[in-house]
Amino acid sequence: MFSKVRSAAICGIESRIVSVEVDVANGLPQFSMVGFLNAQVREAQDRVRTAIKNSGYSLAPKKVTVNLAPADIRKSGPGFDLPIAVAVMASYGFFPGDMLERIFLAGELGLDGSIRGICGVLGMVLEARRAGCESCIIPEANVREGAVIQGIQVFGAGHLKEVVEHFISCRKLHIASINIEEMFSEMPVRTMPDFADIKGQHTVKRAAEIAAAGMHNLLISGTPGSGKTMIASRIPGILPLMDIEESLEVSKIHSVAGLLPSTGILRERPFRMPHHTVSPVALTGGGGVPRPGEISLAHRGVLYLDELPEFQKEALEILRQPLEEGEIRISRNSGQYVFPADFMLVASRNPCKCGYYPDRTRCHCHEHEVMRYLHKISRPLLDRIDLHAEAEQVQYEELVQESGEETTAQIRKRVLAAQSLQKIRYDGSRFRFNAELTAAELEHYCPMEDEVKAQLKHVYEQKRLTARSYHKVIKVARTIADLEGCEVIGLRHLGEAVYYRPADGLQ
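Below the sequence we write its predicted structure tokens.
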């Protein structure tokens, strides 16, 4: 007897529908599986047979053939266990095979028949809805993740026996339901560290505010203990929450990586802080079965690289392409995978290896050692960073003062107002933030006073800017004007933007 059910394979961060076809016939007893499978999927035959037996069902010795189609997609992961088991039992006649039409299944089986959680369920359910499935059965551990997708019935199951009883109508599974509109209408409690904890460093905090308002890249330089990491870790707190579309996009990436929280969806923008020993593959993604790396996990959020010169040069240079294009492409024999990488880069560095240059009372680095340390970061990468801020040593009087520092809530209010202006300005276009503007669109979206246009020529020649850094100065000035609620860029906006752009050779 033949039966078929739908499941899905993960290709990068996308899911592709896979038909699990099972035929049971008389003949020499065997259990064969075909369809471009890796070792994890091939092992499913032993898990499936044992799980069925330990769930209280007996299978007669027959010839069982399982095909996972289409054959040109590499199948990996344990998520095919449940659909294979259900299709096998339908082929044995435990329930009619036509009951599996327009139903999607995914899940890993334990030898006792229990159904374990898997990665990538959110994207699978989304693809199942696109494919016209009316319902899906997924592990109980992933049920909230799947239930955020509207327009399809989602059932959670903890044991294979529950699924079989659902089909033979002994006991129906409960439909999981989440009102995502209601969830996003409620303001969650944000428990992030506060900017008020940082004493002094007003210039760097202002740079962080500008960076957050326009989603610009930021580099903070300064001596050890001056608050660089503290400031960077507080930037997510002044960023707005993601909307539904962004949340689903980001949550799908984290679902594939197995990092989605128990709520089933992310609302806060990601903040990723990989250690400087991270490998290029861990940073960009990849592997035998390509999975997202730190760059993609920071999509729509912040990627913070502390001690930037200590990272592998190869890993740093990989950042150049995604910083420009907002995505990263990985090519393998099995195909090409596209991972989203539209993130805000925040980095910090010391002025030298010991961290105290140019204070010669504490720094004993030779000049060539200082230059070699700073030149670990290439000019093309530095050129892609919009704002460069210097963190000065905090004075004692600033350190002991009890109040007077702005809170995260106060800064966030200004950032949200500036981003609201950008939302109105770019409505109907492909842009969302000032940092995304292309050179061709600057003249249209960045009107300037006549004095600003004249001053720009002087800045370009004096600072010896590249074409890219010239455009970045304009985009930063656009954000500063937005923070003041000005439609036209003035001289004071340009002046502040230029202050955060070092001259060529001084980066």
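The mean pLDDT is 92.
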